Amino acid sequence: MADELIGASDNPARKVPKPRRLPTTRRGLPDTRLEEINHVAATTGNDPVLDSLIIRLHSETACRRAGVLALTPRDLDPDLCLILLHEKGGTVRWQPVSPTLMTHLREHAEQRGSATSGDQLLRYANGNPITRRRYDHIWNRLGKHIPWVATQQISIHWLRHTTLTWVERNFGHAVARAFAGHTDNSNNDGGSTTAYTQAGMSEIATALAALTGEPHPLAR
Q1: Structural domains in the chain?
Q2: pLDDT tens sequence across 8-43
Q3: CB 138 within 8 A of CB 51
Q4: What's this model's pTM, rounded to 2 decimal places?
Q5: Are 87 and 93 in contact (CB under 8 A)?
């Protein structure tokens, strides 16, 4: 159809119903299991500093993997403790982070050479930028040390579920939606009312401050 070799009425694939989307098996992890993941990440492997930074970045921001891989030193605002996330669908958004995480991100950039190059922030010890394969390495290693990680096929996206579940339970749906970076109103999620009840940056920062136990310059 795209090449105009057939018309829409001649395409049999258009008559095939899409399969029903099954509910996800992912869910929020309890604090004890999140602590276990952080402990093993920080005490094993060939670069525990990098792996701990990746896990904390996802835990604080509930961002997607693409957002971390696209992060550059230019995307850091240390004064307001914000990072600029470039995620799927070409979306770009500012997300609050704790002062501690901002400090470690800047130190990482200085120590591994990305601060001067201005390219991808997270890098291996040799200065090469990380790829998606680092995530596979992290979770394969965690699965060897923590049996339930391998059994339940835990991945980095489970951290997004964990953080957003906590935010929703403690600060409500509007804040969780903004925290997640969900901006479209086409899924009947609250109808047109969603456009009038969107949470602001100060509300996201307030939720983050409660999550991390650290003050944030934009929090209420």
Answers
A1: 24-212 (1.10.443.10)
A2: 888 988 888 888 876 777 788 999 999 999 999 999
A3: yes
A4: 0.84
A5: yes
